[in-house]
Amino acid sequence: MPFTATFRHVRMTLLEWMIIRAVPALNRFRPRADWQHSLDDLRHFPAPSWGASLADFLDTRRFADFLPNYEAHDAFHTLLEYDTHVVGELRLQAFMVGNRSASFAGRVLLVLGSLFLPELWSQLRHDFVRGRQSECVEHWYVPSLLEHAIEPLRARIADRVDLVPFS
């Protein structure tokens, strides 16, 4: 493996390790999120719903269940169509920061990811602008939206990004 590919692999692995270690640590300090639906419940939602799409998203990735307190986070992965690997996590955080809906931990992850993977800056900037141009999702009560069709909800999220210089 060439040096640059090896170095990128090391950086990605380190970020992945940090993300995996952060989840249990963060859950010690966070109150339990209000979430009424099990993954099995969501599998029985109507096909075009956000809930059914979320179940399919998790099943496709062979997740046995939700991470505690990350149910809405996973739902936004589904809505935004960002994968759950390191790059997808960074893209989600860039969107959320742009949307003014990111947690403190999400903002820290975005900064660290940007420092570790500067080759993603263009993509992350695109996702940041997408978030900025979208309806603010900070106060969406995700459990109440899971029975809604996912496509109209996606329509509330900017999918056409006009990149303009920052001022």
Alpha carbon gyration radius: 16 Å
- Name the average pLDDT: 90
Q: Which structural class do the helices and strands define?
A: mainly alpha
The total beta strand count reads: 0
**Integer count of domains:** 1
Which structural traits does this protein have?
single chain; 167 residues; mainly alpha; 9 helices; globular
Would you kindly provide a written description of the structure presented here, covering whatever features stand out?
- This protein is mainly α and 167 residues long.
- The chain has one domain (3-155).
- It has nine helices and no strands.
- It has helices at residues 3-27, 39-43, 50-60, 71-80, 86-98, 104-116, 121-133, 142-145, 150-155.
- α5 (86-98) crosses α7 (121-133).
- The longest helix is centred in the first third of the chain and has 25 residues, at 3-27.
- It is globular.
- The termini are far apart.
- The relative contact order is 0.14.
- The mean pLDDT is 90.
Brief overview:
This protein has 167 residues and is mostly helical. Helix content is 60%, strand content 0%.
